[in-house]
Amino acid sequence: MSQFLQQLINGLSIGSVYALMAVGYSLVYSIMNFSNFAHGGVIMLGAYFGYYYLTAAGLPFPVAFIVAALTTCLLAVIIERGAYKPLRERKAPFLYFIISAMGTSIFLENMVIATIGPTFRTYPEILSRTPIQIGSVSVGRLDLTMFIISAICLALLVFFIDHTKMGKAIQATAYNIKASALMGINTDLVIIVVFALGGFFAGIAGVLFGMKYTVYPQIGIITNKSFIAAVFGGLGSLPGAVIGSILLGIIETITSGYFSSQYRDLIAFVLLIAVLVFRPSGLMGKVTEDKA
Amino acid sequence: MYKRSLALLLVCLMILTLAFSGCSKPATETGSEAGGETAAPADEVIKVGWMGSLTGDQAVWGQCEFDTVKMLFEEINAKGGVLGGKKLEAIGYDTKGDPQEAVNVAKRLTGQDKVVAIIGPNASGNAIPIAPVLEEAKVPDIATVATNPKVTVLDGKVKPFNFRVCFIDPYQGAVAAGYAYDVLKFTKAAILYDVADDYSQGLTEFFEEFFKAKGGTVVAKEAFKFGDVDFRPQLSKIKDAGPEVLFLPVFFKEAALIANQARELGITVPLMGGDGLPSEQLFTMAKDAVQGTYIVNHVDYDDPEVQDLKTRYRNKYGKELELNGYLAHDAVVLLIDAIERAGSADPVKITEALETADVQGVTGRIKIGKDTHNPEGKEAAIVKIEGDKYVFQQKYSAQLD
Amino acid sequence: MDLNYIFGILTLAGINLMSVLGLSLLTGFTGMFSFGHAGFMAIGGYTSAMMTVKFGLPFIPALLIGGLIAALVSSIIGKLTLNLKGDYFCIATLGFGEAIRLILDNVQYFGGARGWPGIPHHTQLLNVVIINIVAIIVLANIVRSKHGRNMIAVREEELASQIVGINVFKYKLISLMISAAYAGIAGGLMAHYMTFLQPKMFSLVKSTELTIIVIFGGLGSISGSVLGALVLTSLPEILRTFSEWRLVIYGLSVVIIMITRPSGLMGGYEFTPSSMKKLFARMKNKNKGLPNQMEGGKTV
User: Fold this and answer.
1) Is B349 exposed, middle or buried (0-12, 13-18, 19+ CB in 10 A)?
2) Is the whole model's pTM more than 0.90, yes or no?
């Protein structure tokens, strides 16, 4: 029983890492209807920014944390302007966006290898590594902090989207971009804001990831998992992304804990396909209409 | 219309560049030029190829390897070169750790750059597929840390142009199992390995085989997949199985993360690992968690002979020498010895000389076996992590069979 | 320039082209995006290697069996996932590709993650070229047939095609199976070129690379795929001397091509004798200063 509880906590903590990454994907998808594969690269850079603000610039942690997130904010907007806007203006199909995003992510990853180098960096210890013991179950302090920070950020995001004018504009644009433009919404600005928000979340995810694990140029690989989680929950839906991520985390943990760690991903993928067969738009995805 | 023509023109240009890039001297290429004097006439320069990962997950080792080779060549050139005054030049290319890239690189090095020998690659999965290319071009290759037996011997037959300076996986597995069971008296071991990695799978198999043959039991054998960073699900399961030692046939990044997470979950047993573990980075990532870890290593870091190489590297590049650097050093030593004994820079003669090579490297005596092309009877160094040092325990050798 | 090296790259370009041709049918002509084609290559590669190594079959039948098995597997995957839209299908194929790799990593019969050395060396530039020519002729005929037109209709307007009585699902499935067969044969060629198979060779990166080639060459253009495969296989080789900057340049050029030439190199155009005639006629017209009425062409 205690092992099961421990595994559940492990799953929750892995899931919350996925969730933080998946939110950025989902936000962009809800407006642009394409998977922003460059997101992983931005997360990776977020981890590096945080690291350098903390160590080289010597900023205190909360400041470094926020500044790193703001930097990735800017970076995401620059990527949008450079790699996606020209495509948007041409009304290119989503394939081109995806390829452009992939090119960007190859570029970012290798740029870091070529300039900063492939070595791993470790964040200075901000929180003690000794976990909190509850009975025989141990909960990492960092996990708990991450969980809380993620929850606060998500709550702020939901508030922003539901209660501000800009948020409403985002919702309208997500619903129908053409009609929103006709209604006088500056959709270009909305897109910038969405990318900025995605970048902000990428920065937060990057810094927390870097603190918890380590910083290296291939962090992008792990974001594939969060992408799958976002699809699992339903692309374009924020609650879907969170629920999908947590579910994926728990499924993975239970699989490797009780069935086979060798075939863990296989089982996760089979489940993913099973979900998609019965719910083609994920658990909570918006139902995409056929183009008519 | 114009745009299309322009694009087509561009494509033709690219293809032409490919066709003619061979005519330009490799010496003008960025990053490939080592210490060789550019002014030296072509026949005075001996070109040696290097291949390995300059990008990708193993770039840390690849870059260190190439840097070591370049540094040593510069030193040799400064002392007057080889074969009575010929300069050495290193030409290195990135393989990304990808077998297909490795084949391309081997073709380029042997065909276009006309190197006399190749040093590297570090990954077995890259060293195996280049064998047919080497055989066709008749150019020898000295692998650095490719520990899969099949790198030099396939179906009982030795590959004529593949050599290596490291010991092989079965040996490493046997040493680890023997040391754990016989010396440390552990009888219950758990293994956590990377199912998508060739090195990890090989070492796991041989450790398990030898540990069981000794009479030990493997109480848990769990896997993760390359790219994973969280191992707590597997570790929670391992904790329940109650092992006396946790064997980690993985690389240092995963080892550091596993160590941290294992300690968080309250696993206090000592860790043990192979030659993927030793790195200066292990300490920055998980200094407290890896204390007391036993490692089967190629080299004893406290050996006085090693200190000189370490200092030279640190002075030149401002970083610590990684394990691969030591083996790259020995590959260079082996190659230079072969060139000198062959008395010529002819690849076939170098190959013949390599077959009878017997040199002293920093990782031990390298006596190439004629039927295996492996360094025979090379002892492993067992080191233990204490503080931020790899403290030498003992030389240990195991009997296969 | 060394011939052996050039032949090596061309052979590799030919192998890539083989799977790109299949993917071109799926993505360029039927409008579906796959991230799992490396998985089909893996199936074809391991199957044909098994045929030649363990059962001693000749090379060509082994290749065909590899293609056939890949097509069979794709039909099962297709039945489950072809109803999914856009990114969802894409992720399902991504999952499939990774699942195949994970299975191969675990199956010790094929050497697991450590790979399978000692496969006979059969793939030469000559037979790759011949196989590719046959493949192009077959593909061109499929595309020009009634079935090919139906596939293009599915790409352009799925709902409308359904309404006029095209069995959308069936055509998607046929397209997927043919493209998987092509990828399977390409995998077989790869196995007998490298003489070594390792699951690592068929990673997500490989699938991505193939898709990039198709889009780079131009969706819905077979000649574009040929050109794309040649250029994008040799580009990293040209850039090889840039060492660790190589992939930085590669990534950047992919983005630049996408934003400056959004319909790829060929943009739906084909090199055929008649199109060449038209092209020359147009150039003549231009020289005479006549207005050019054929500008544009079909774009996706």
Assistant:
1) middle
2) no
